[in-house]
Design goal:
- The complex is a heterodimer.
- Helix content of chain A is about 40%, strand content about 5%.
- By secondary structure, chain A is mostly helical.
- Chain A has three domains: about 50 residues, no CATH class; about 140 residues, no CATH class; about 35 residues, no CATH class.
- Chain B has seven helices and eight strands.
- Chain B is α+β, with helices and mostly antiparallel strands.
- The radius of gyration of chain B is 19 Å and the shape is globular.
- Chain B has a single domain, classed as Alpha-Beta Plaits.
- Helices cover about 20% and strands about 15% of the residues of chain B.
- In chain B, the strands form three sheets. Chain B has a four-stranded mixed β-sheet with strand order 6-1-8-7.
- Classes of the chains: A mainly alpha, B alpha+beta.
Chain lengths: ~240, ~270
């Protein structure tokens, strides 16, 4: 097939950016298009660029997010180990999660369990369930005083967002860790990091400021929801009023 | 009368029987309480106050003893077409940032406040004046108990956005969630009704799926007394009215002299 004449010119095919890179790499002193950098110029340029990248990509996120420890540690792995804790039942991984993080009768999701759920087992301050230090602290500080544990929520969505857990977990059969990460295997609760400006958790915005994510649970923004809806063939659920309220 | 709602799976709609409406205003109050509609310090300023469900009073203009009065509750009409045959509401077709959408599955016209840029083009496009602009942030004075009335299911609006009736969309979500918990994918009639329909003491408002022939609304709209507001604009609203009074039906649209045809024969 005969090519048209204009496509034979490589510069137009490669585009502006690559021709720019070519000019820098080739270091063409005769070119008037881009002033050639001397070694001193490069050092000057990088001396400005690198500290600013460090400032913007490392120091700014550290300043932006506050780190708050949870009021006490909770060992998910211990509770889900049938050799150590008896009574948390469920055929599947999701059912085990739902034993404590349960649905209410009307289908709404209860989220982080209230004290009443904990005291179904941890009811007696003198029982052997209060042997380790965090258990003792839990029994004396919260159970004995009948005070709710002020857990910090990693996944609190903005006010304008509606999310139905039951539509995803029961009807969509999505495992909890797809969005929340593998909490079942962790022995320590992660540190809660809150955006000082917006008041939302870092788990919503994503830990990586560049927006790069490795796992499905790394970030929980609108595009991530839409991405999964599209992938699962539910594009109709990308309509605004499905998730907004 | 053309009654076609064949586009989506569900087409939620409302039938308001004006003969039953007493004009008590409970629908307005229930709507405002349900949807976190803020009150202004001066609510008498009707150019600035917000009412998703607005109640209008009309009279036949005759001298006593022939005076007759009727009340028009007016929610958002959730139009199916923009009047030019396009399957979008008049407001949806003009919104620059797509902050409002006609949901094809439910027929509900959404309004996303965080996306709205406050240009008020939709307000100008709406033939029913069902859209309201927030000139100020919501006014819920602290210590007077108003903030305790706020529903967590509806996001309160900020200054500079347009808001409107959503057919209590959060109630649809609530009904769906309950249906899922019971292992159903579809909700039944009566599980999802709007706050105004629930609150109306005269039971003048009926809510349901116009596409489902078993629902009461789809039977009621077959009545010869059924009409819609400004029907000839061809916006295909999903809010129907019922009135046996000819002068009420005549007021619902702009008719030329002699053009309006009163109902003379009652047929099925």
């Amino acid at each position: 097939m005969e090519k048209p004449a204009y496509s034979s010119a490589p510069s137009s095919k490669n585009g502006f950016i690559s021709s720019l890179i070519n000019r820098i790499l080739k270091y063409d002193k005769s070119s008037t298009f881009l002033p050639p950098f001397s070694l001193g110029g490069w050092i000057f340029f990088l001396a400005g660029l690198i500290p600013n990248l460090i400032l913007g990509w490392l120091i700014f996120p550290m300043v932006l997010y506050s780190s708050q420890p949870q009021p006490m540690n909770f060992n998910h792995a211990l509770h889900l180990n049938p050799d150590k804790v008896d009574g948390i039942e469920g055929d599947t991984e999701t059912d085990k999660c739902l034993f404590c993080h349960e649905f209410r009768e009307d289908g709404t999701f209860a989220g982080i369990p209230k004290l009443a759920k904990c005291t179904e087992c941890h009811d007696d301050p003198d029982s052997p369930l209060g042997e380790s230090a965090p258990e003792k602290a839990f029994l004396t500080n919260y159970v004995a005083e009948e005070k709710e544990v002020p857990w910090l929520c990693y996944s609190r969505q903005p006010d304008c967002v509606y999310f139905s857990h039951i539509a995803h977990v029961k009807m969509g059969e999505i495992q909890c860790r797809v969005c929340h990460g593998d909490h079942a295997k962790t022995e320590k609760l992660p540190v809660y990091k809150e955006n000082r400006l917006t008041g939302y958790s870092i788990d919503i915005w994503g830990r990586n400021i560049a927006g790069y994510k490795r796992h499905t649970w790394d970030r929980m923004k609108m595009d991530d929801c839409a991405e999964c809806h599209t992938k699962m063939g539910h594009e109709e659920n990308n309509a605004c009023f499905v998730c907004h309220k | 009368m053309e009654k076609e709602h064949g586009h989506g799976k569900h087409q939620y709609g409302m039938v308001i029987d004006l003969d039953k409406c007493t004009g008590c205003g409970t629908c307005m109050t229930a709507c405002a309480a349900e949807n976190n509609v803020s009150v202004r310090p001066d609510e008498s300023d009707k150019q600035r106050s917000i009412a998703w469900m607005q109640l209008f009073k009309i009279t036949n203009g005759k001298e006593f003893p022939h005076t007759e009065v009727s009340y028009f509750p007016r929610p958002c009409m959730h139009c199916n077409e923009n009047g030019r045959g396009h399957h979008v509401s008049p407001c949806v077709s003009v919104c620059p940032p797509t902050a409002t959408q006609l949901d094809l599955d439910t027929g509900i016209v959404s309004q996303i406040y965080t996306r709205c840029i406050g240009c008020r083009y939709c307000q100008a496009a709406c033939p029913y004046k069902a859209r309201y602009f927030n000139w100020w942030d919501g006014y819920f004075p602290k210590g007077k108990g108003l903030e305790r009335y706020l529903s967590p299911e509806v996001s309160p609006r900020m200054r500079g956005v347009v808001e409107k009736c959503t057919f209590c969309h959060h109630r649809l979500m609530r009904a769906k969630t309950k249906a899922y918990a019971e292992g159903r994918r579809e909700i039944e009639e009566g599980e999802y009704i709007t706050a105004c329909a629930e609150a109306c003491p005269a039971q003048a408002i009926t809510f349901g799926d116009l596409n489902n022939p078993k629902h009461k609304v789809s039977q009621l709209i077959k009545s010869p007394y059924a009409f819609r507001l400004l029907e000839r604009l061809n916006t295909k609203p999903k809010v129907y009215y019922l009135s046996t009074k000819d002068w009420v039906r005549k007021m619902a649209d702009n008719y030329l002299p002699g053009e309006f045809k009163p109902v003379t024969k009652i047929g099925g």
